[in-house]
Amino acid sequence: DAWTFSSLPLAIMKEADEWPIEFSGLLPIRATEDENVEIPGLRLFSKTRALAIAGWLAGLEPVRLVIEDSQLLLEAGQEDRWLVTNLEAKSAERAQLSMLTSREKANGLQFIAIQTTPEEQSFTGFWMLRDLPNQ
Asked: What value does the mean pLDDT of the chain take?
């Protein structure tokens, strides 16, 4: 099992509703001038537990990913927060910058994707989240 914090271009996010997905929570994406803006997100990989992880995450109702100090947190529901991982200082800075850029250029979009492997052309779970300052 593995994970990575990464970014995908907004143009790819617009196509997400056409991908094979077992569990999902997709937000509508507004038109933007820059479809190349990078959307930050979390990709989780598990050959044996992808479906179980996606089912569990679907029950949480994920809202947004946040960085506090060097921790990547998932906020879910109205009051739940889950520690995803501790990040190295430089990784936390890059992730925070990516999230701030998305907040400004892509209306705060983020994503969580669950796949069996990084090479897999489908998702077991895929959620689009939104990090807005007033949340």
From this structure: 85
